[in-house]
Give the backbone structure.
Amino acid sequence: MMEPPIRYSRTSDGFNIAYWGVGEGPTLVAMPSLPWSHIQMEWTIPALRSWYEAVSRGRRLVRYDGRGFGLSSRDAPEVSLETDVEDLAAVVEGLRLDHFDLYAGLHSGPAAIAYTARHPQRVDHLVLFCSYADGSAHRANPLTQATRPIILQDWQFYAQVVARLLLGWTEPEAAQAFSDLVSQCTSPEFAARALAATSLFDVSDLLGNVLVPTLVLHRPEQRVSSMENARVLAAGIPEVRLSLQPGASVAPYLGDTRAIIEEIDAFLSGREPIDPDLATDSGLPQSLGQGVEMAAGISTVVFTDVVASTEMVERLGDEAARIALRSLENAVARAASARTGRVVKHLGDGSLLEFASTSGALRFARELQTASAEDGLDLAIGIAAGEPIREDGDLHGSIVVLASRITAVAGSGEVLVSDAVRQLVRGKGFDFDDAGTRQLKGFDELVQLWRLRL
């Protein structure tokens, strides 16, 4: 992979934020763990370069430098939780991202939590690695107390020490490369101010407002961020998955990187992680677990149906209609995989799908309706949320029947959803119109339906 071009966004308070993007697919924004970031020098570290190449497979990876370090404006007078949030917002706005996944390690975690709590409609998934909610707890770490006074006394020596503390003592080559990055990515004065600011970060009160699926990754063996930090995050965030990983490095690109990448891939795609050792790929995983069923539990079930398909066949002819339907199936599969979904099966003139994320299912439906209308196909889509019965890759149960019945009463170009679906995405930027109550076949009680605004 070639080193990507550097681009810039400007914050509302006038700072230029450098960033790059690689790969294609759903966007994952990876925040810098201030102040140790230099998005150009990082490509000279082989292990970090391999990490970026692996993480960007199947998605678009965006990395940026915050104000005061790397290639961004160096004349920042201060750093705070709010300036960190502002730097992230500048990149998001510059790229015009309506929604994205967010990754944050160590010191960037609090800003990621604050941004996600404020913008749940934009963040689809949040991944936190060896991070924390309260910076005062991190400041109390004996290693932090012992090393920070060295910053202004001997900058080069401090760079050597912090590189080995963060990366571990068993990675001398990577530590030396990271030490060079530390010494050049910012000034000792700014580093001292930035690290002092992290001690004041506290988003403990915001954890309950993080209303998106969150993965808390932690390496208990590393000595920089305590296990208690991970417990606090996992206990405070409503929809969370805690994954403990082996390794003594706070750098995710060192140690068992395949396991970390598999955890992230599985989480973002809505499936259970698999053992990387069972994968056939001999290097870093490209797409481990393709075709693996989603985890048991609640999911969002979607049916699509071509309206008046018989008339379409008569109008186009058998061969042209077959090509149109095959093209639709391919479009459905591509769109679903980009939105944490999977195609359970195609049904001739429609499809049954399952999504780990209700927001992802609604975005899929909205995008598919728009694309189908442009192609001259009339689709009806029905969506329900609940716990289906999974058997040999197929779905059964009342929730599947409900989604099917909703689709049957949906009109051309409509997306109708159950009340449970609407409740699950409340406050996430979706608008609905009341579609009334319907007596659906097989259900004794009237069912409240809602029409998704496209």
Q: What stands out?
A: The first helix runs from residue 46 to 55. Residues 381 and 393 are 21 Å apart (CA to CA).
